[in-house]
Fold this protein.
Amino acid sequence: MILVTGGAGFIGGNFVLDWLKEPKAEGIVNLDKLTYAGNLATLDLVRNDPRHVFVLGDIGDHALVTRLLKQHQPRAIVNFAAESHVDRSIHGPAEFVQTNIVGTFNLLECARAYWNELDESKKTVFRFHHVSTDEVYGSLSANDPAFTEANPYEPNSPYSASKAASDHLVRAWFHTYGFPVLTTNCSNNYGPYHFPEKLIPLVILNALNSKPLPIYGNGQQVRDWLYVGDHCSAIREVLAKGKLGETYNIGGWNEKANIDVVKTICSILDQLKPRADGKSYAKQISFVTDRPGHDRRYAIDANKVKRDLGWKPKETFDSGIKKTVQWYLDNPIWIEGVVSGSYRDWLQKQYR
C-alpha cells in the first residue's frame, strides 16, 4: 500500500481517485483531518473499494501516524496534507504553522523511524513524496524568467512561508539522515472537486447564483494554471522515477491573468448555461480591494521534469477549463454539500 495524507482535499482527493481507477493499483491508506476543505463526498467513487482505507486524523498525531505505518507497512508516503489558502493564512497564520511545519516535521520523524526498521530490500524502494507549491519562490515581474528548481526561496505570505519551511525540513532530512525524499512544487491547480473559495470554482458558483464575481485589485495578477489530473500524473511519474533528494517543478505552461481567467469562465457559461436575461456573466464582475502582499506573477519552468522523466501536461487551459466548468454544472449535489453556512460566513468576511 501507499499512505496518502490530505487525501480528502482537492488535489489529494483527485490523486486518490486517479490512483484507484487502475484495476491493479496498490491500495491507499488515506489520512485526513477533514478540516473545512476536506470532503468525504469527493471520495464517493471509492467508498466501497476495499483498496481504500480512510482514517480520520492529523499528521501531527505521532501515535496515530506511527500505528498506521506499523499496521499497513506502506512502501511510500505522498504528503498532500496542508493548510493552503493565502487569504486564510493572513487572517489566522497559527494553523498554517501547526499543520504545514509542525505536522510535516512529525510525519517525517514517524516515517524515518519506520524506514530505519525496514529490511534493506524494502528500505531501498521506500519513498517520501512531499507536495508543495510554486509560491515558495515569491513573485515575478512581467519579464522575469519562470521559476526553476534553482530559484531562491522568497515567500511573501504566511501560507507560502510555512510551505517553504516544510520544504526545507524535507530537504534536511535527506541530506542529514539519508531519508529517501522527493519534492514537487506545483503551480495553481484547477479542476473537479475544488473547494469554492479559490478563484475558479468561486467564479463558477457565484456566476450561476447571480452573485458578484470578486476580483482582487485590477485582476492583472498572473498565474500558471495546471489541470489537477495532469498534476496527479506528474506525481505518479516522480514517485516512480524521480531521483532521491531532487525537487521537480510541475507546471501547466498556461500563464493567465486573473481577469482573463474570469472572462473565459464567463464566456463558457454564456454558451453552456446562458443567463435568463440573455446578458453575459461578465456583467457580474466586481473589483475588490487587493489583499496584503499579493504576489504579482507566478510562472513555472517545468523543463526538468519533462527532460528527466518524460512528463508534460496533456491539457491546455482551454481544454481543462471547459472540463472544469462542465463538471460543476454536472455535479450540483457535491456543490450543495460543500456550500455550508460557515463557508458563506467566510465569503462575507473576506469579500465584504
User: Anything to note?
Assistant: The domain at 2-190+227-253+294-314 is CATH 3.40.50.720 (Rossmann fold). Residues 68 and 138 are 36 Å apart (CA to CA). The chain has a mean pLDDT of 93. The first strand starts at residue 2 and ends at 5.
